[in-house]
Amino acid sequence: MSLTLNSHIFEVPGVGSGYAKKLEKLGIKTVRDLLFYFPYRWEDYSKITPIAKVKSGEQISVGGIIQDIQTKKSRRGIPVTEAIISDDSGIAKAVWFNQPYIEKSLKKGDEIYLAGKMEWGFGQLNFVSPSFEKAKEAEDELRHTARIVSIYPETAGLSSKWLRQKIGLLTKLIYGIRDHLPEEVKRRHNLIELSAAVRSMHFPENQEELKKAQKRFLYDDLFCLLLSVFLNKKEVEKEKSIAITYNEKIGKEFVKSLSYDLTSAQRKAAWDILKDLSKSVPMNRLLEGDVGSGKTVVAAMAALMVAVAGYQVVLLAPTEILASQHFLSFKKLLADFKDIKIAILTGSIKPKEKADILKEIEGGEVQIIIGTHALLSEKINYWTLVLVIVDEQHRFGVDQRSRLKKANGEARAMPHFLSMSATPIPRTLAITVFGDLSLSILDEMPPGRERVDTHIVPPFKRQDGYEFIDEKIEEGRQVFVICPLIEKSDKLGVKSAEEEYQNLKKVFPKRKIGLLHGKLKPQEKEKIMSDFEDNKINILVSTSVIEVGVDVPNASIMVIEGAERFGLAQLHQFRGRVGRGKHKSYCFLFTDSKLEKTLERLNALSKINNGFELAEKDLELRGPGELLGIKQSGKVDQTLVRVLADPRIIKDVRDTADFFVEKRHLANFPLLSEKIKEFDTAVKLE
After folding, report:
1. Domain-located, residue 448
2. What's the number of domains the chain is made of?
3. SS (H, E, C) 592-625
4. Residue 118: is its pLDDT beyond 70?
5. With contact defined as beta carbons under 8 Å apart, do 446 and 569 qualify?
6. DSSP designation for 88
7. Are residues 307 and 422 in the same domain?
């Protein structure tokens, strides 16, 4: 069977159904998917080092002849394969643990290449578990040694070596990949062909070739993303919305009803939004602010203006828990405005109650409707929907807007759109990725919010942490404990919420402990959160379902198990669940990791409490592709950071994208039109 780019992955030689399932976990279903599954880093083994010059700790390549090879059993019964390799300069020893099959594939007299690190062991310097290739098998092209070697994001049972081998079988198909970028774009930015870039990402001949491939995919993604942004903006600007005149009397009453003063940042953001609402062109604005900066108050004021004018507002939240939280917050904030009716629609609402609410929405009796994104797919007939507020989703595609427009009764007007984000985005990145959105930033914290002390807790300090937590519970405080998983996974080796729940019942036998995760029924989640808010639960063990929106002022300690498995932005979101009351608050990062890069990330969180500073650090450490959760083909973190930190590059690509939108008909570029559809989706932060 001849392979094509669209062939299913199990058709590739050596990939059966078992491997196909593992590949699908990585999003790889076809040959094309595998070819576009790029390394996240590269090891440069291209220089062959004489054995006599190898030093301990160096990552290097050597070439030589096997003088002897044998497999022995260690004291623990583990097979240890040892090989003696020599070149013209000296002799080295290579050791592989628990891989007895190596002795069958290598024999005395074979000429081989080794790539890896030389380390002390057994009283001498050894290559420990190096990659190897026979010279006679490497005549066509080396894959794993003596070259720049690609390292891929892996999953259980799929190593980088296995992926390199399979991709190596498909290199001829790379040249059948059609390039979607117009020639004039490639010429303007000096970009190489797509097929050449794909090949060089996997098997670069040298550093210069690798840099050209990285540049091609960086500019490619940036150009296509900006095209999508500009096209979205252009489509929205064609539409008409219902203009809402600012009601000064209501605005003053709302501000006066608050038990605190608005910050100057809140006042400015609110005024920007109110001015947008007063126009007949649809508002398209992102309200960005750190955890606890007061976005909900600003959104409530905008919703109030629309509701008082006799129109409707929808607030979409990512989870039922957050939707319920918003419902309670809006009820409290708008309590003085008795004529405004607020309703919540979630999966836990009973059918009869839901039917009544839908009828009231259609009749215009409900002005503010809060729920999850199910509100987009429900067959709801709005009286006249004028404002859509979306929490933690920043791009809102034309298709999504049109769906709400069609549901908008007889008016057929495009709703105004306000997105809220509690995940601060570096300004350079926000301007680039969300170029179709106006930006309002809440960069002030309301008075009274104290800094949350953050500490890394290694295994040997865990017991001290538990004793401190127990003291705080005795004082009346409450605790969040976050785990990466719901259920135990031996493969991942991290604590699950269910496992930690059972463990903490033994550690704190006198305390009341609750468990919250996504698999629970809505009524169960609601009951647990209600009990926690009422201080009937001392310690709440949870997964990331409490990442945003949950507000329990009495909770003063946040414990994050397996902290190394979360990004800085997400860790900051977790930390933001405490420090919301009058009590001194703490965040403990429990980790077993000793990796330098991991500890650098966690140290950044312990030192930096400002979300915008953390966002810049996250951008530096992880790169914008991972930070934004969008596919950045061939992303190389530091390269991306340098480009996005350079306004000239951003401006150059923006100018090209803007020119194409204004001066070119995309219908004449079908491959490009198809490509940008990948980017015309909601971009969500992790």
Report:
1. no
2. 4
3. CCCCHHHHHHHHHHHHCCCHHHHHHHHHHHHCHH
4. yes
5. no
6. S
7. yes
Give the domain extent around 348. Answer: 248-442
Residues 391 and 503 in one domain: no
Can you give the CATH number for the domain in which 172 is found?
A: 1.10.150
Q: How far apart are CA 618 and CA 467, in angstroms?
A: 32
Q: Please give the full DSSP string across 139-192, using - where no structure is assigned.
A: SS--SSSSSEEEE---BTTB-HHHHHHHHHHTHHHHTTPPP-S-HHHHHHHT--
For the question of whether the overall pTM of this predicted structure is more than 0.85, the answer is no
Instruction: Answer whether 68's CB lies under 8 Å from 56's CB.
Output: no
Secondary structure of 180-205 in HEC code, one letter for each residue: CCCHHHHHHHCCCCHHHHHHHHHCCC
Cβ neighbours of 606 (radius 10 Å): 13
Q: What's phi and psi for 326, nearest 5 deg? A: -65, -40
Q: In a 3-state reduction of DSSP, which class is residue 10? A: helix
Tokens of 268: 């400015």
| Joined tokens for residue 147 | 């070259």
pLDDT tens track for 399-451: 566 666 656 555 568 889 998 887 666 666 666 666 667 888 887 777 667 78
- Domain identity same for 267 and 349: yes
Copy the structure tokens of residue 589. Answer: 């990062």
184 alpha carbon, distance to own chain's centre:
33
Phi and psi at 261, nearest 5°, equal -90, 140
Position 620 scores a pLDDT of 66
Give the containing element (helix H, strand E) for 42. strand 41-44
Cβ-based neighbour number of residue 467 at 10 Å: 9
Give me 598's structure tokens. Answer: 């991991």
With b meaning 16 or more CB within 10 Å and e meaning fewer, what string describes 639-662? Answer: bbbebbeeeebbeebbebbeebbe
Tokens of 401: 């807007």
Given a contact cutoff of 8 angstroms between Cβ atoms, the answer to whether 419 and 285 are in contact is yes
Q: Is 30 found in the same domain as 158?
A: yes
Task: Give the whole-angstrom CA distance, residue 625 versus residue 639.
Answer: 11
DSSP 3-state assignment of 136?
coil
Query: Would you say residue 628 lies in a domain?
Result: no
Indicate if 168 and 128 belong to the same structural domain: no
The type of residue at 325 is Q
Q: Give a yes or no: residue 661 inside a domain.
A: no
Task: State whether 596 and 464 are in the same domain.
Answer: yes
At which residue do the structure tokens 């951008």 appear? 619
- In 3D space, the residue among 213, 193, 217 whose CA is nearest the CA of residue 204 turns out to be 213
How do residues 586-619 score in pLDDT, each as one tens digit? Answer: 999 999 887 777 788 888 888 888 777 777 776 6
Question: How many CA atoms, within 13 angstroms, populate the side-chain half-sphere of residue 182?
Answer: 20
Residue 464: enclosing H or E segment and its boundaries?
Answer: helix 462-474
The three-state DSSP-derived secondary structure of 12-40 is: CCCCCHHHHHHHHHCCCCEHHHHHCCCCC
- Decide if 390 contacts 684 (C-beta within 8 A): no
